[in-house]
Write a structure and sequence with these properties.
Blueprint (H helix, E strand, L loop, with lengths): L14 H29 L5 H32 L5 H19 L3 E3 L15 H25 L5 H20 L9 H63 L3 H17 L13 H16 L3 H26 L9 H25 L5 H27 L2 H16 L5 E3 L2 H18 L1 H10 L5 H21 L5 H15 L5 H32 L1
Antiparallel strand pairs: 1-2
Helix pairs in contact: 1-2, 1-13, 2-4, 2-11, 2-12, 2-13, 2-14, 2-15, 2-16, 3-11, 3-13, 4-5, 4-12, 4-17, 5-17, 6-8, 6-9, 6-15, 6-16, 9-10, 9-11, 9-15, 11-15, 15-16
Length: 532
C-alpha cells in the first residue's frame, strides 16, 4: 500500500446529518451558556470574569478535541467492523462516556495529575498557576485538533503533559522562578519508552488472541461453511438426478414410487424412526446426505469457543471497571469480593452467550459468527466508553478544575473539587467533538490501518483492555491510545494486511505530540501573562 494518510472522508452531508449537526451544535451552545452562568455564580465576585470566560473556552475546546481524537479512536474498531454506525457509536458514547464522567469521575482531581513538572518546588502566584493550566489546555487542544484533522490518533495524556511542561518551563525561565530542574526528565523518558512499549504490547497480545480466534473459530467456520455448500450442491444434484430418473419411469412405476416416497416422508418425521425402514432410494440417499451435515457439526466452534472467549473477555472488562472505571466511587469492596464479582460476571456471560449460540444453530454460519462477535464488541465498546469517561476525561477536567479552584479560592491547592456541572459540560463537549470532527480518526483506526470484522475488532478491544489493566497493575508506562493502535496492527499482521505506510506518520505524530503541545503551551502562557 502507498497510502500515507487516512482515506478521504465525505464532506458533503446528507439532510439527516445536517439535522444532527444542528442538534449537537445547539446542545453544545446551550450547555456552554448554562455552564457559564453557573460558573459566574460559583467563583464569586472577587475573580476576573474575563479569565473565567477564557478558561471555559479553553477547557471545552480541550474536551471537544478529546472527543474528536481519543473517543473516536476508542470507537474506530466498532465502526470500522460495521458493528456500530457512526450515529450508533455516538449514542453509545453519549450514554456511557457522560455516565462514566458524572457517576464515577471523582469528586476531586489532582491539580497536576502528571507529576512531570514539580510546581511545588517553585514559588508561584495563584494566577500564574492558573495561566499554566490554561496554556496547557490550549496547547493540548490545538495539537489534538491538528492531529485529528490529519486522521492521526494520538495520546491526550501526552498532549496535556506537553502543554504543562512547555507552559511551566517558559514561565519559570522568564520570571526566574524556576529552571530546567522543574521537569522530572525521568518521567519524560518513560513517555518515550511508551512510544515503543505500548504498541508492541498491544500488538503482541492481539496477535496471539486474534490468531487463536482465527485458527479455532474463523478458519473452522470457513471450512465448515465450504463443506455445507458442498452438501447443498450434493442435495441439488441428488434431487435433479432422481427427478430425471422419475421422468423415465412408466406411469405404473411412477405411481408405485410416489406411494413409497409419500410413506417415507411420513416415516422420516418420526423422532425414533430407523433409516432401514425407508423404502425409496430418494429418501435413503437424502438421509445419508443429512447425516453428513449432522456429523459436520458446523456450529461447534461457536458453541464451544465463543462462550469461553466471551466469559474471559467479560472478566477482563469487569476488572477494568472495578479497578479503574469505578475506583472513584470508593465502593470499599475487598479483593476477594472483586474476584467473586468478576467470577459471577464471567459465569453469567458464558451461560448467556452459550444459549444465544444454540439459538443460532439453524442460522447461516457466517451470519451467526457476525452476530455473536457484534454483540460482544458492543459490550466491550460500552465498557470502554464508561471507563474512558470516568478516567481519561480528567485530561480535560483536571487542569480545567484547577483553574476554577484558583479563581474560586484565590490559592493553589493540591486537589481541586470537580463540580458535577463541570463534568457534565465536559461530557457534552466530548460527544460533540466525536460527532463533528471524529470521522477521520475513526476511518484511520477502523479501516485505514487494516480491515475490520466484528471478531477482529473484538480481539483488538479486548487485547487493549487486558494490556491496560496489566500495565496499571505492574506500573508500566503505557498509553491506552498507543496500545489500541498496536492491537489493530496486531490484527492486521495476522491477516497479513497491516498498512505500515499509514503507521509511519502516526508514529511520527506520537513523537512530536509532547514538543508540539509544549511549544503551543509556551507561547500561550506568555500571551496570557501579557494580556492579564
Amino acid at each position: 500500500m502507498t497510502q500515507t494518510s487516512a482515506p478521504p472522508v465525505r464532506t458533503d452531508l446528507p439532510r439527516s446529518d445536517r439535522s444532527w449537526h444542528l442538534f449537537f451544535g445547539l446542545l453544545l451552545a446551550v450547555a456552554t451558556i448554562v455552564f457559564t452562568l453557573w460558573s459566574l455564580d460559583y467563583i464569586g465576585d472577587g475573580a476576573s470574569r474575563v479569565i473565567l470566560l477564557v478558561a471555559i473556552a479553553f477547557g471545552l475546546f480541550m474536551a471537544f478535541n478529546i472527543g474528536g481524537n481519543d473517543v473516536a479512536n476508542s470507537f474506530g474498531t466498532s465502526v470500522g467492523a460495521g458493528t456500530l454506525s457512526l450515529k450508533q457509536a455516538l449514542v453509545v458514547a453519549a450514554v456511557f462516556e457522560v455516565s462514566g464522567a458524572v457517576l464515577a469521575g471523582g469528586e476531586v482531581t489532582d491539580t497536576v495529575r502528571s507529576g512531570i513538572v514539580d510546581l511545588e518546588a517553585i514559588s508561584l502566584e495563584p494566577m500564574d498557576f492558573a495561566f499554566i493550566m490554561m496554556s496547557a489546555l490550549l496547547g493540548a487542544a490545538v495539537w489534538l485538533l491538528v492531529a485529528t484533522r490529519m486522521g492521526w490518533p494520538v495520546s491526550t495524556t501526552h498532549s496535556i503533559i506537553g502543554g504543562i511542561v512547555g507552559a511551566a518551563l517558559t514561565l519559570g525561565l522568564s520570571t526566574g522562578a524556576g529552571g530546567w530542574d522543574m521537569v522530572q526528565w525521568g518521567g519524560i523518558g518513560q513517555i518515550a519508552v511508551s512510544w515503543v512499549l505500548s504498541p508492541v504490547l498491544g500488538g503482541a497480545v492481539a496477535w496471539v488472541l486474534f490468531g487463536a480466534i482465527k485458527r479455532h473459530i474463523l478458519v473452522y467456520n470457513e471450512e465448515a461453511d465450504q463443506k455445507l455448500r458442498e452438501i447443498k450442491q450434493e442435495r441439488i444434484a441428488h434431487r435433479t438426478r432422481h427427478r430425471q430418473a422419475f421422468e423415465r419411469l412408466d406411469e405404473i412405476q411412477q405411481i408405485s414410487y410416489t406411494n413409497a416416497m409419500a410413506q417415507d416422508a411420513v416415516t422420516a418425521t418420526r423422532p425414533d424412526f430407523d433409516p432401514e425402514e425407508l423404502e425409496s432410494d430418494y429418501y435413503r440417499e437424502l438421509r445419508a446426505i443429512d447425516e453428513k451435515a449432522e456429523n459436520l457439526d458446523a456450529h461447534r466452534a461457536l458453541q464451544t469457543w465463543v462462550p469461553l472467549l466471551a466469559a474471559g473477555g467479560s472478566i477482563v472488562i469487569s476488572s477494568m471497571l472495578l479497578f479503574k472505571g469505578l475506583k472513584n466511587l470508593h465502593l470499599n469492596i475487598d479483593s476477594a469480593g472483586n474476584f467473586l464479582i468478576m467470577g459471577m460476571v464471567g459465569a453469567a456471560v458464558w451461560m448467556a452467550v452459550f444459549i444465544f449460540a444454540k439459538t443460532l444453530r439453524n442460522q447461516n454460519l457466517s451470519r451467526s459468527t457476525y452476530l455473536l462477535f457484534s454483540w460482544m464488541q458492543v459490550f466491550t465498546a460500552s465498557a470502554f466508553a464508561f471507563s474512558h469517561g470516568s478516567n481519561d476525561i480528567a485530561n480535560a477536567v483536571g487542569p480545567f478544575a484547577a483553574v476554577f479552584d484558583v479563581l474560586h479560592t484565590g490559592a493553589i491547592n493540591g486537589e481541586a473539587p470537580v463540580p458535577a456541572a463541570l463534568m457534565l459540560v465536559s461530557g457534552v463537549g466530548l460527544v460533540a467533538g466525536l460527532w463533528f470532527i471524529g470521522r477521520r480518526v475513526i476511518t484511520t483506526v477502523g479501516t485505514g490501518l487494516t480491515s475490520m470484522h466484528p471478531a477482529s475488532g473484538f480481539a483488538a478491544e479486548l487485547s487493549a483492555a487486558g494490556v491496560v489493566m496489566a500495565a496499571s497493575v505492574l506500573g508500566l508506562p503505557v498509553s491506552s491510545t498507543h496500545i489500541l493502535i498496536g492491537a489493530v496492527l496486531g490484527v492486521g499482521i495476522v491477516n497479513r494486511a497491516a498498512n505500515w505506510s499509514l503507521m509511519r506518520p502516526i508514529a511520527l505524530a506520537w513523537v512530536i505530540t509532547l514538543p508540539a503541545a509544549a511549544a503551543i503551551g509556551a507561547v500561550s502562557v506568555l500571551v496570557l501573562r501579557w494580556l492579564f
